[in-house]
Design brief:
Rossmann fold; six-stranded mixed beta sheet; 9 helices; 46% helix; globular
Length: 237
Amino acid sequence: MPVTELTAPEFGIRPAPTPQRPLLGQTVLLIEDSRYASEAVRLLALRSGARIRRADCIASAERHLNTYRPGVAIVDLGLPDGDGLSLIARLAHAAQRPGVLLATSGRDRDETEQAALAAGADGFLPKPIDSLAGFQQAILQHLPPEMRPRGLRVVGAETVRPDPLALSEDLARADRLLGDAQVTPGFVADFLTGLARTGRDPELLAETQGLAARTMGDLRPHLRRLIAKRLRERHAV
């Protein structure tokens, strides 16, 4: 799958960050398979002054990393072609290591944050990632002083709201994944858990978190019913 470039890169001298755009001059590589989560990070990066590129799987990310070194890499731990932790471990020890390496996940924070830090991540961004101040601080605290803005930075309570269409696209994708023999129902359940957190859907989160007690044979049809219900609700809005 090709790397999706969400904003055109600028060339030449790196622009200096400002208090209003504290990530000006940075390029963020987001490795995330959820369109809805990606749209939230795209909005946050653009409002912070950063350029952003997206890879939706490990293979796509590695093709990107073979040709370009991002200043910031954000890696989702649940990816369709492998474990995000293994990618973090490789990036953490790479000769061309990203300046800031962050992990993100929709799983329970207590279960994932320490594993991500142990693999070599500089920090952890729990989903939903929708706070502008939180996003900026998660990156700025790991940048060297010369890459941070000078002067006082106004820290507000601004949040972003991704296009709801991206959420519907993620639900449709989850339904397609259930028909793929190479994808386990467990992966789809994890994907829906992350989607529930990103979309602030407590009902869906409660349902996906209760799937551990189900057998693999029962899990696939249950997930299909769950996805179909959510898609009907979204089409009715």
